[in-house]
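## tool: complex_structure
## caller: assistant
## args:
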Amino acid sequence: MAKKVIATTSLAGCFGCHMSILDIDERILDLIELVEFNKSPIDDIKTFTKRVDIGIIEGGCCNSENVEVLKYFRDNCDILISLGECAIMGGLPALRNGIPIEECLQEAYLDGPTVKLNTKKILPNDAELPQLLDNVYPCHEVVKIDYFLPGCPPRADLIWDALVALITGSEMDLPYEVVKFD
Amino acid sequence: MKEKINQIISKYNSDRSRLMDILLDIHDEKGYVDKNDVNQLAKSLGISAAEVKETVSFYHFFSDKPRAKYNIYLNNSITACMRDRSSVKEAFEKACGTTFGHVTEDGMFGLYNTSCIGMNDQGPAAIINDIVFTNLTPYRVSKLIEGLKAGNELRSLIYESNGDGNNADPDMHAMVNNNIRKGSILLNKDYKKFDVIESELAKRSPEDVIQMIEDSDLRGRGGAGFPTGMKWRFGRRVEGDHRVIICNADEGEPGTFKDRVMLTEFPDLVFEGMVIAAFATGADIGLVYLRYEYKYMLKYLNRILSEMREKKFLGQNISGIKDFNFDIRIQLGAGAYVCGEESALIESLEGKRGEPRDKPPFPVEKGYLNYPTIVNNVETLASAVRIIKNGAAWYSQFGTKDSTGTKLLSISGDCKFPGIYEVDWGTSIREVIEMCGAEKVQAIQVGGPSGMLIGPRDFDNLSSSDLMKWYKPSGMMVAEKFFDRKLSYSDLPTGGSMIIFNMERDLLRDVVMNFMEFFIEESCGSCSTCRNLPYIMKMKLEKILNGHGVRKDIDDLLSWGKTIKASRCGLGQTAANPILSSIVNFRHIYEQHVQAMADYDNTFDIVKSVEAANKFVGRKTEFHSN
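## result:
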């Protein structure tokens, strides 16, 4: 059986979900037997070099670059997984969704107690920078997402089980504790 | 003002459980409650400022900001919208010079939206400084505001004369109409006031009375259909220093207005029912929870109670029966749909936020101030009087075998004769449609938004138990769990509200959306399911209506709707019903809106979503196609 190809990315996330992927410990050696990685921070491949079976997305979309990367993943991956709270619901970054973006920028760059050094009142508007979205969007509101793995971060075992189930085509065991959080 | 508030507090003996009355009085005095008042109240009542604040913020008719001289609460229920509410709204905004949700700069007018005020048969209606104005049109609105600006007295600007029947009573002076279209055993002018208290009770033991109610198979008319006799028997059995009878007159389910008519025309019958219930259960405390929207009746109802006291039908040794002591107090609500749920109602009666309690214990075990408490609907109590007067066998000849007696229906919407109909149980919807002169009926909302939307194929088989599958009563969800007893109330859902929609109505865009907005507004916020899901589901419905829907969206709605059953009270559990029941009965309409071929679509627009930030930082919105 040909190895499945996996790609991963972190959008508006904290890389905690990626750390959780690494938390599968020595099983990463088993995983390498089953899969090869393509575009991913794990191997630092920047662009897709072939069609990918499974794309794993950490984080939601807070700027135009996130959206672009996410669409890039959707175009190149057969299956997309939203991994963790931020990808699924926006997570902590989405706390700003209740506040108009103008107010957020005002506080972050002009009024906040920690911005005393910004004496020239510079706002980030360089054309090289990603453009900020009005809200932080969960991935499934931007592209079609096939699977959702909840958690902050999702436990390593959950990620492992999900990947093994997807790769081997077997059904995933989802006991109550895995989907119940409060 | 500080002194004034102290007077109000001492009027209620600094009793924390009377916080609702204290707040109502302060609002009468100055129109709102500010931070200083909150602190003063907290200190005098021995509770925290947060407890006062959370109560103020919970109720629609309380305010923590100054309101206007004239506060206009325009009802936004579905039937008002069907009768051109939007023009009336515009007329108010134009005449007052401000928009809804705001107070004019001169402090003269405040415009507010409000949920159903029980005037569905004569909408659009508004409550202005506690006076109800019905059948509003843009013309009437402009004349009304003109008159107020010219300094005329508000009441003098009532466009029509007083309404029919007791609405014209000097203590009520309301332009409200009863619109009684069909009476039977409750709406019956032959009723001899207080006959049962005077000549029947002394002849019987409490046990006899309960037995008669049980034999009659009377069931709760507020929603759940719990056997009344059983509730009374249970209440009598529980030990307590006091026992309490509560009359639930908080009909907040949009489309329901039967209790308003009962209390207008037959308040004596309702109060007599409370006295009978007190006799049967050994209760000494009586409370009527009257929704704020019906405040215009308060003076009139209190007069009836005084008359009863004078005649010894309330007070000590009622009707000469030794140690039968019972009195009734009317508690006003302050605008909260959820207070129709009996445990939320009790919380509110104790001067707190109207949040439903966890059950058990049930109110009959630990209710108002932890005393055994029996909560009955207005109509249930009235029915009890007729049963004791004429006997259980007499009562059982009305209705069907498993649903005895009559039911008051509040009928509104697309029909010639909206109003109150008292029909025997077992009447088919087709008969009701003919009765009220409705034509080309597309759908009927049975039992308010929390009930179900049914289409023509159901019109003939109203007695089928299918109806009950979807209808979860909103009033007293307790019943089902209570004695683990399955209800066989297989006829009309008992709330009795029926809103009729003809073929020209857009069921999803107008009706279902309106109902979802109602549930979003009225959620008490305690359970995350009822707080969030109605909002999320409404967004999904909007997506479908905007042409971005796919088939999966319909399936998502159905599966998410199941989760809402985890809510604590019956109201929350039914908050998804407008969408769920319309998918079940009108799925074809949903399918017309969704894209047949697409399996994914969204409403995300990147250009739009970066505009605000780009504008703020001074940057052009540019996207390079690659």
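## assistant note: Chain A touches chain B at residues 64, 67, 100-102, 105-106, 123-125, 127, 131-135, 137, 141-144 (CB under 8 Å). Chain A has one domain: 4-96+136-179. Handing back to user.
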